[in-house]
Amino acid sequence: MRRVAVIVPTLRRPEGLAEALASLMAQQGVADRLGEIVVVDNDREPSARAVAERFQGRSFPVIYVHEPTVGVASARNTGLAATDAELIAFLDDDEIASPGWLAALLASQSSTGADVVFGPIRGRAPGAAADVRPYLEAFFGRAGPDRDTLIDHPFGCGNSLMVRATALPGPAPFEARWDQSGGEDDALFAALSARGGQYGWSAAAWVDEVAPAHRANLAYTLSRAFAYGQSPSQAAWARRDMVGVVKWMAVGAVQLAGWGLMALPLTVLRRPGRARALDRAARGLGKMLWMPGLEPRFYGTTELQRLDRVGR
Question: Tens of pLDDT along 222-265?
């Protein structure tokens, strides 16, 4: 049986990291498969070392590595370099895995034969305003089929299991140019799709994602929605598919006009539906304003600056 490693990138979230690691120590049915948990500390200074060391010597081996180049792609690549496991699972430092999470991902990969398997996410935004909390929890969540199956599109890296040989080729499969903006997983999966890769869904591989206060707000999620909207236009541009670029820009214009008109009165009246309408309008705008240099920055030094402001 192929050995699996779990990679947990982290950046100044000691409480979240501790919860994530505690949930990994409680994994059931994987004692003969889980080789190690790799904690990648992506702070400039090794701020997560103490938390990682607290979990060493428990149920599963914990490897701590420090990647001072702050950026999500660099952190993932450093985690991969620390293990030679044939299967790689990714859990974010704001995610809490259910006890059967990893066993479910492994079973689903075996049954579907997929190169990458994703699981559902239950979003939680405990500090959010009540009128936007349902939207925020849906935004940070992930839904899919109610059974294990192949699916026709990928999701993000958090809560996933990948076959290293096919999904993560080479020593640094995540492109460092995405360190600051994110999107390293989109680029990875676009390349995998071009090679004929397959994606699977594991209905029982649940995790909870707890949004920190500096992300559990409309300003942050609408910026992310704009970036998500940019993705199809950018992917078409990368393929030099100008017809596709024009198509997605036209789709974005319709989306912006329709949802923007709907969002205006809902926002003025502060109706609960305003968040979803603003989200869809932002995605439409992103499809139109997809050009290089317009990508919002969510990771790396930008995230450090946010955390510095929160800590003051």
Answer: 999 999 999 899 889 988 999 999 999 999 999 999 999 999 99
Rg (CA), the chain: 19
Contact 181, 137 (CB under 8 A): no
Would you give the end-to-end CA distance of the chain in angstroms? 49
Q: How far apart are CA 36 and CA 64, in angstroms?
A: 10
Element (H, E) at 238: helix 218-238
What are the tens digits of pLDDT across the range 101-114? 999 999 999 999 99
Locate 153 and state its tokens. 């599109």
Query: Which of 289, 276, 157 minimizes the C-alpha distance to 226?
Result: 289
Give the position of tokens 């989109």: 186
3-state secondary structure of 300: helix
Q: Which two tokens stand for residue 135?
A: 């939207």
Strand ranges across the sheet with 34-41: 62-66, 34-41, 4-10, 87-90, 160-163, 116-118, 199-201, 149-151
Longest dimension (CA), the chain: 58
Which helix (H) or strand (E) is 65 found in, with range? strand 62-66
Cα 117 to Cα 108: distance, rounded to the nearest angstrom: 7
Q: Are 220 and 241 in contact (CB under 8 A)?
A: no
Tokens of 250: 């036209």
Distance of CA 28 to the CA centre of its chain: 24
Mean pLDDT of 86-102: 97
What local confidence, expressed as pLDDT, does residue 312 receive?
47
Cα–Cα distance for residue pair 297/179, rounded to 1 Å: 9
Distance CA 46, CA 237 (A): 38
Main-chain dihedrals φ then ψ at residue 5, nearest 5 degrees: -120, 145
β-strand 34-41 against 4-10: which pairing, if any?
A: parallel
pLDDT in tens, 177-193: 877 777 788 889 989 99
DSSP label at 177? G
Task: Tell me the sheet residues that pair with 96.
Answer: 208
What is the value of pTM for the model shown? Answer: 0.88
